[in-house]
Protein: Enoyl reductase (ER) domain-containing protein
Organism: Glycine max
Amino acid sequence: MPNTSQVISCKAAICWGAGKPVTVEEIQVDPPKATEVRVKMLCASLCHTDISSIQGFPYINFPLALGHEGVGVVESVGDQVRNLKEGDVVIPTYIGECQECENCVSGKTNLCLTYPIRLTGLLPDNTSRISIRGQRLHHVLSCATWSEYMVSDANYTLKVDPTIDPAHASFISCGFSTGYGAAWKEAKVESGSSVAVFGLGAVGLGAISGAKMLGATKIIGIDKNEMKREKGEAFGMTDFIKAGDSAKSVSELVKEMSGGMGLDYSFECSGVAPLLTESVEATKVGTGKTIAIGTGTEPIIPFGLTSIMYGRTLKGSVFGGLKAISDLSIVANKCQKEEFPLQELFTHEVPLTDINKAFELLKKPNCVKVVIKMSH
Ligand SMILES: [Zn+2]
Ligand SMILES: [Zn+2]
């Protein structure tokens, strides 16, 4: 039985450099330091951001232990950790919440200044507990969920109800919650309002779910894949536009479906560069609000300036504006009570050793989420 003083050898998905293949190799996971916890992963999942990480975007250091969505059980804790104990079921997060810094107390943002997003891929002390053949490994931000064990700082770890479905818990650790939070915390969608969601992956389906919860009465989903229609409907979408079927632009089609005025809110979840302008154009002149949460791999993209000249608002968001403890715990509660049909997201599953299959599966039209099962 491992304990806090032992190094654990286990399997993890590794990428040695931008564009290099992903390999499953044995790594060493050191014991947690004072404020840290070592987590035995139960399951993980694949998010589109993982594909951009492998390409080295946006701030990735190599060699890299992959994965940022997942759920696990605390195996051991550092001696200063008070809020977590061995056996707790936890979601590793990539942003913390101190509840004391200027941003946390502002009530306006989830971007905590004390426990920020770790762009270095290292823990707060600028090291990591994971290594391979003596060489330090980096995380994706502060997670490495495609690993049988990982160490995270307790301030970047959320305890959840142990009866939560592990696959569903993994889905809410990034993608779904990002969309859900964007509707809830960033747009603050109002009852009776109208919404367009561009891109119906887990993020877009989360935005639909959030808009529905807040009482939006018209929720238009847009995707080039017809198979996403029934997924959107399961989460509360009222209308569907199959992108690419018409000579008209998507924003024109949205306006036609809304009496010519456009909608109150839109969510750009696809990361497809030209759709950013389209998503803003799809909203009402003077009052429309667009939340950009899709991550492409182009750092600079062309944008139609006139779309925001007419009083519309475009806002970016990380993790849908959800605070990693106070808000994510509410989403986790809803997940545990099965208030969202998260089983609709679960389309494929692979063992960690077949991780490369997961990338192939994600290209299939019927794929929403690939769950990665740990072998232990
Ligand atoms: Zn803070
Ligand atoms: Zn993600």
Observations:
- The longest helix spans residues 175-187.
